């Protein structure tokens, strides 16, 4: 376990808040695109559909990251935070500082 588990809890909670805030702010971009030809030209509609698709893809990545953060918080509660989920060796603290939700050590990541 890392030397200061509460530090990592704070990092995880902060990232979780940031992702939830981004998700909330981007919700309009994921709404269905109005296909009224009178108000929007064909190219503008294509643009809007592309932007919507990108917003949905970004949201999917945010949800994946939120799930990783939740698993990390659960490991923190369970006392096995900082251990590789493959080999059960300790994950370097520097690696956890870069990505506090990481589940694998460098050796197992590759």
The amount of helix comes to 55-70%
Detail the poorly predicted runs. Answer: none
Tertiary shape: elongated
Q: What's the total helix number?
A: 4
Mean pLDDT score: 87
- N- and C-termini, Cα separation: 22 Å
Structural class: mainly alpha
Number of strands: 0
**Overall radius of gyration:** 19 Å
Query: What percentage of amino acids are in beta strands?
Result: under 5%
Main traits of this protein?
110 residues; 0% strand; mainly alpha
Task: Please provide a written account of the structure.
- Helices cover 62% and strands 0% of the residues.
- The chain has 110 residues and is an all-alpha fold.
- The chain has a domain at 5-80.
- Helix 1 (5-25) runs antiparallel to helix 2 (42-78).
- The longest helix is centred in the middle third of the chain and has 37 residues, at 42-78.
- It is elongated.
- The chain starts with a helix and ends with a helix.
What's the layout of helices and strands?
Layout: H1 5-25, H2 42-78, H3 93-98, H4 106-109
Helix pairs in contact: 1-2
Task: Briefly characterize the structure.
The protein has 110 residues and is mainly alpha-helical.
């Amino acid at each position: 376990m890392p030397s200061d588990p509460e530090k990592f809890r704070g990092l995880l909670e902060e990232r979780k808040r940031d992702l939830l805030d981004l998700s909330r702010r981007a919700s309009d971009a994921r709404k269905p695109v109005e296909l009224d030809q009178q108000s929007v030209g064909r190219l503008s509609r294509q643009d809007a559909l592309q932007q919507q698709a990108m917003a949905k893809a970004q949201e999917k990545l945010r949800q994946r990251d939120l799930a990783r953060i939740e698993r990390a918080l659960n490991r923190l509660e369970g006392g096995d935070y900082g251990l590789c989920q493959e080999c059960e060796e300790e994950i370097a603290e520097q690696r956890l500082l870069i990505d506090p939700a990481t589940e694998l050590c460098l050796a197992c990541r590759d």
